[in-house]
Design goal:
The protein is mostly helical. Helix content is 57%, strand content 0%. The longest helix is centred in the N-terminal third of the chain and has 16 residues. It is globular, with a radius of gyration of 11 Å. It is found in: Cytoplasm.
Length: 83
């Protein structure tokens, strides 16, 4: 993943495949828990998949403050070194 847009696209694919979320519903401002019905177990599963894709160690505690799709993009950007 080389850009924020690429991270968003990968995240969109994961949310669609893993949680059967409609791709059109996945926008940066969408709340993961309230709007997409992602629960804490789903969030851990998402972190595991992101870890596999990025090849980086991701501590689930780093994602405790994540609330929106854009928050996930920001967190992954930071982990992989994209400004």
């Amino acid at each position: 993943m080389n850009s924020r847009e690429e991270i968003l696209e990968v995240l969109r694919e994961l949310l669609v495949d893993m949680f059967e979320v409609e791709a059109a519903e996945i926008r940066p401002d969408v709340l993961l828990y309230e709007d997409l019905d992602v629960d804490s177990i789903d969030a851990v599963d998402l972190v595991v998949e992101l870890r596999k894709i990025t090849g980086k160690q991701i501590n689930p505690d780093e994602f405790k403050a994540v609330r929106t799709v854009d928050d996930v993009v920001n967190a992954v950007s930071s982990i992989v070194g994209i400004e």
